């Protein structure tokens, strides 16, 4: 089988401006929704109590809401979780009532209303933990960004590092934009997925950059635009197949992983799709605009054929 | 050119064997079991206990698959959960006749069903996290400010006593938060007081200032002393929690320090959270009272008379009744420390108590008046009192250092000191995070994670085989090997597997195939450009390697960040993610090359390789642009 019967290099860079405008528009929309709607943060970040209760028959949400409201807790959210028989109850942090009492009270009241109610899971997070988690998440993001930039700057060149990070951070913002727009729950596993996607889609840029560097060495008559077009064209089949394979795995999680892994898999799906787009169309174009040249990548001049043993790029040549 | 030297095959063979061995226990599953362990340091688990357990099972008519003494516990493996519950009841009845004073913890547990020779190799199944096996997770925050304030309070009392002993006149001692302020009328007394502080209070640092006509000395706890106090408070709380959790009958509780002021408690299998919270949040108090030694009281002690008015009957830890007066002399608040030690003369084990200034004063007065009488130290928990120790007062005790000695073993001394501390030192704790997972949810989560990995793996493998033919099969074998290695490493490290961890496993497999796609695409490209079969394989692997390495490093950076800054579910994800990236580099490149070399390497005149369609554009094309 061969899906990609490409006769000549596809002139990706001719439309670089259009691709980047599309990308910019999506990015701005994501930022807009992030600010206007905000993220629907899970209990882990906001603090509060979460109860997952299962009934033997499809649950009467209004009844559950009533029961909980009678206990005098404010701002209670009740929703189905997974199936019609499972109910998720979310209570914000209440002043003067300890977490222990809160979940016990609610459970007792629900049991009284319907004896088939069984507790599946409770989660309580104090407000102090939530702030820390948010801070730790940002620290992790900063660590990933700086780490990857340093690595790419050493391995390639700073222009590539900048291009790759811009392209991939914009993926992250777009994932967050989706979560804000649809008000999907942003939980800790989703945060993990977002950071994993960042590392993963940088891969994509790395593969293309590797090819660009190799092409600079091999084809001395091509100009930068042709080199980039050739690099993207010759890696496009690998890009699609790899992402397709990863997506198959993610799809399997989406289908079989249940409600807990649902948003995790969703974040990965968006990340993978936009990861392809940004690496192929955005990262290379930014690198091009930043003005990468043959001399940046092929150290020691173009004419020198033999490899310097101290060359950090030596690993990529044959 | 595509041949591996023998040692490379040996490495692959070793990896296969070791990986297979350590992954194996996961396939045997676990069976229900009952675990018996000691609830008190005094209680020993030995072959005698084993005989008791076996006898108990025999009388109840339960046949166990295995009854074994392992380290400090006895494990009884049973065929089903029904037998498990029956066995637990039977053993409990025999070993713990008095539920109020348990000597043993009899807990339900799961035991690996893997054969003994595997266990002998320390090969055990992956450790499942709470979200997969069900249970309770708590995170408790120790109120360090309260611990420091308490310490400052007791120090301010000590300061008052010391100044009085040295006849240094002051115009008042105040505790202001965690600082102690002392006022003086003139500079001379201030200087004298400063010397006292320097000599006697190593934990305090002082600052003096003139305030109008007054001279004021402000003492605060030194940072290093504060750190020590916090450390002690945390350790104390962990010890106390350990003791309390023993009561719950949990087979493998996890009680760990997290950060500077937090404690994580995980109780696998516990469903009764209300009880768990009650026990964790319980406060113990300590009281010192006099033993009633009147004739009526002695009669009551022997069980022949009524307990006299104004006294109460409590039991000692060995079950002997003691009649104590209701009047409380001291409470745990006045006790600053309790440590086991040895008498300098007799070398007997002792328990050494330190009292604060107020406690010292009272204690001196009481002991002076009651030489030769007995004093009882009682610990109250859940409103239930118990006499920890009831020593005879030998002489007047001043100075706040109390030594309890006589008829004690080292273990008993340790135990007593621990109980005394439990009733006094512990800083208040607050539950700041709590998760409860029901057992059915745990089993469902395992199934969900398992199906995600299995179906994802199969889909990828089928696609690879269709698209790359024989090379797809090689890639799939490498992917399966990756999964095997990952499971083996996780089992070996006994890292905790959670649902996000299983998600990471699926994701890592999806990402690991990238390496093989890169290699296979490169080989196709080399073939397309007219390279010979052997040369194409060789250059394909070589050229792809640099790219694979680079891309794995960037993914690893993200994984490490998650590991460093993540907590809870994120960490579970990150561990598997990072390990998976490492194993994928080995399996995707080194191992798959080994398989390819094994298959094709020997054929010198290799004409074609089975890697699916190698499509060539007609004539010259941009793809083939040469310099």
Features:
heterodimer; A: 318 residues; alpha+beta; Multidrug efflux transporter AcrB transmembrane fold; Alpha-Beta Plaits; 10 helices; 64% helix; elongated; B: 627 residues; Gyrase A, domain 2; 4-stranded antiparallel beta sheet; disordered C terminus
Radius of gyration of chain A: 25 Å
Tell me how many strands of chain A there are.
6
From the spread of the alpha carbons, the general shape of chain B counts as elongated
Strand content of chain B: 15-25%
SS element count, helices of chain B? 17
For the record, the count of structural domains of chain A works out to 2
Level-2 CATH architecture of the largest domain in chain B: Up-down Bundle
The low-confidence runs of chain A, each spanning 5 or more residues with pLDDT under 50, are 300-309, 314-318
CATH superfamily of the largest domain in chain B: Multidrug efflux transporter AcrB transmembrane domain
Q: Helical segment tally of chain A?
A: 10
Largest sheet of chain B: 5 strands, antiparallel
- Helicity level of chain A, as a percent range? 55-70%
Helix content of chain B: 40-55%
Could you outline the blueprint of secondary structure elements for this entry?
The complex is a heterodimer of chains A (318) and B (627).
Chain A: H1 16-36, E1 40-41, H2 43-46, E2 48-54, H3 61-70, E3 77-81, E4 83-91, H4 99-113, E5 118-125, H5 127-155, H6 158-182, E6 185-186, H7 188-218, H8 224-256, H9 258-289, H10 294-297
Parallel strand pairs in A: 1-6
Antiparallel strand pairs in A: 2-4, 2-5, 3-4
Helix pairs in contact in A: 1-6, 1-9, 5-6, 5-7, 6-7, 6-9, 7-8, 7-9, 8-9
Chain B: H1 6-23, H2 25-28, E1 30-38, H3 47-60, E2 66-70, E3 73-77, H4 81-95, E4 104-112, H5 116-120, E5 127-128, H6 130-133, E6 135-142, H7 144-165, E7 173-176, E8 179-184, H8 187-200, E9 204-211, E10 214-221, H9 223-248, E11 254-258, E12 262-268, H10 273-280, E13 284-291, H11 295-302, E14 311-315, E15 321-331, E16 335-342, E17 349-355, H12 357-369, E18 375-381, E19 384-389, E20 401-405, H13 410-422, E21 429-437, H14 439-493, E22 496-497, H15 499-528, H16 533-565, H17 569-600
Parallel strand pairs in B: 5-22
Antiparallel strand pairs in B: 1-3, 1-4, 2-3, 6-12, 6-21, 7-8, 8-10, 9-10, 11-12, 13-15, 13-18, 14-15, 16-17, 17-20, 18-19
Helix pairs in contact in B: 1-14, 3-4, 7-9, 9-10, 9-13, 14-15, 14-17, 15-16, 15-17, 16-17
């Amino acid at each position: 089988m061969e899906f990609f019967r490409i006769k000549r290099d596809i002139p990706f860079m001719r439309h670089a401006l259009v691709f980047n405008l599309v990308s910019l528009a999506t990015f701005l929309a994501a930022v807009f929704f992030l600010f206007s709607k905000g993220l629907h943060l899970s209990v882990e970040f906001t603090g509060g109590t979460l109860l997952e209760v299962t009934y033997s028959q499809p649950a009467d949400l209004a009844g559950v809401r009533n029961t909980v409201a009678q206990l005098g807790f404010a701002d209670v959210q009740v929703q189905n979780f997974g199936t019609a028989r499972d109910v998720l109850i979310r209570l914000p942090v209440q002043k003067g009532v300890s977490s222990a009492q809160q979940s016990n009270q609610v459970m007792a009241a629900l049991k009284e209303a319907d004896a088939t109610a069984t507790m599946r899971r409770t989660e309580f997070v104090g407000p102090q933990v939530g702030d820390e988690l948010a801070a730790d998440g940002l620290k992790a993001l900063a660590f990933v960004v700086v780490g990857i930039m340093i690595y790419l700057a050493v391995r390639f060149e700073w222009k590539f590092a900048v291009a790759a990070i811009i392209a991939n951070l914009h993926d992250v913002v777009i994932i967050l934009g989706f979560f804000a727009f649809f008000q999907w729950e942003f939980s800790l596993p989703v945060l993990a997925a977002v950071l994993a996607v960042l590392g993963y889609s940088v891969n994509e840029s790395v593969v293309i950059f590797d090819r660009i560097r190799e092409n600079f060495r091999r084809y001395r008559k091509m100009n930068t635009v042709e080199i980039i077009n050739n690099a993207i064209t010759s890696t496009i089949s690998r890009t699609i197949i790899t992402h397709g394979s990863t997506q198959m795995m993610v799809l399997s999680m989406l289908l079989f992983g249940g409600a807990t892994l649902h948003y995790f898999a969703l974040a990965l799906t968006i990340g993978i799709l936009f990861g392809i787009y940004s690496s192929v169309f955005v990262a290379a174009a930014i690198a091009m605009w930043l003005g990468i040249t043959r001399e940046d990548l092929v150290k020691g001049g173009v004419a020198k054929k033999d490899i310097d043993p101290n060359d950090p790029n030596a690993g990529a040549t044959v | 050119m595509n041949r591996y030297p023998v040692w490379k095959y040996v490495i692959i063979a070793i990896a296969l064997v070791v990986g297979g061995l350590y992954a194996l226990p996961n396939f045997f599953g676990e069976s229900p079991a009952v675990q018996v362990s000691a609830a008190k340091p005094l209680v020993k688990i030995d072959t005698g206990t084993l005989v008791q357990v076996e006898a108990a099972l025999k009388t109840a008519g339960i046949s166990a698959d295995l009854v074994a003494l392992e380290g400090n516990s006895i494990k009884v493996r049973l065929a089903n959960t029904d037998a498990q519950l029956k066995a637990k009841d039977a053993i409990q009845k025999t070993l713990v006749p008095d539920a109020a004073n348990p000597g043993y913890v009899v807990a339900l547990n799961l035991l690996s069903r893997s054969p003994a020779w595997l266990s002998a190799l320390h090969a055990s199944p992956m450790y499942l996290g709470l979200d997969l096996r069900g249970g309770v997770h708590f995170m408790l925050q120790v109120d360090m400010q309260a611990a420091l304030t308490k310490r400052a309070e007791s120090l301010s009392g000590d300061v008052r006593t010391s100044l009085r002993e040295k006849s240094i006149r002051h115009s008042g001692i105040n505790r202001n938060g965690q600082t102690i302020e002392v006022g003086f009328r003139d500079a001379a007394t201030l200087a004298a007081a400063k010397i006292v502080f320097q000599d006697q209070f190593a934990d305090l640092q002082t600052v003096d200032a003139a305030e109008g006509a007054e001279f004021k000395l402000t003492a605060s706890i030194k940072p290093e002393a504060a750190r020590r106090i916090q450390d002690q408070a945390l350790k104390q709380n962990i010890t106390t929690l350990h003791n309390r959790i023993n009561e719950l009958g949990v087979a493998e509780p996890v009680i760990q320090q997290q950060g500077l002021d937090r404690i994580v408690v995980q109780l696998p299998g516990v469903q009764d959270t209300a009880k768990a919270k009650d026990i964790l949040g319980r406060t113990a108090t300590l009281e010192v009272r006099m033993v009633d030694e009147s004739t009526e009281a002695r009669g009551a002690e022997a069980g022949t008379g009524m307990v006299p008015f104004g006294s109460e009957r409590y039991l000692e830890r060995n079950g002997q009744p003691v009649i104590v007066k209701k009047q409380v002399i001291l409470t745990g608040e006045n006790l600053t420390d309790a440590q086991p030690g040895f008498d300098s003369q007799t070398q007997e084990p002792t328990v050494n108590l330190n009292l604060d200034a107020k406690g010292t004063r009272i204690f001196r007065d009481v002991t002076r008046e009651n030489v030769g009488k007995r004093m009882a130290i009682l610990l109250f928990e859940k409103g239930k009192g118990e006499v920890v120790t009831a020593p005879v007062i030998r002489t007047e005790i001043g100075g706040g250092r109390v030594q309890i000695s006589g008829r004690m073993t080292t273990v008993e001394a340790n135990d007593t000191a621990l109980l005394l501390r439990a009733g006094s030192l512990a800083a208040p704790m607050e539950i700041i995070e709590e998760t409860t997972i029901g057992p059915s949810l745990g089993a469902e989560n395992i199934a969900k994670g398992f199906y995600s990995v299995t179906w994802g793996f199969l889909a990828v493998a089928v696609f690879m085989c269709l698209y790359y033919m024989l090379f797809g099969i090689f890639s799939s074998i490498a992917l399966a090997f990756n999964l095997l290695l990952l499971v083996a490493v996780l089992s070996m490290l006994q890292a905790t597997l959670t649902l996000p961890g299983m998600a990471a496993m699926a994701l890592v497999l999806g990402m690991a195939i990238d390496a093989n796609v890169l290699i296979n695409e490169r080989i196709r490209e080399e073939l397309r450009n007219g390279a010979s079969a052997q040369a194409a394989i060789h250059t394909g692997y070589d050229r792809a390697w640099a790219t694979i390495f680079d891309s794995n490093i960037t993914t690893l950076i993200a994984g490490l960040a998650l590991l460093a800054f993540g907590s809870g579910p994120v960490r579970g994800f990150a561990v598997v993610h990072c390990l998976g990236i490492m194993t994928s580099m080995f399996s995707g490149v080194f191992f798959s090359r080994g398989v390819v070399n094994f298959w094709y390497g020997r054929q010198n005149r290799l004409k074609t390789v089975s890697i699916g369609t190698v499509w060539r554009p007609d004539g010259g094309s941009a793809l083939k642009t040469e310099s």
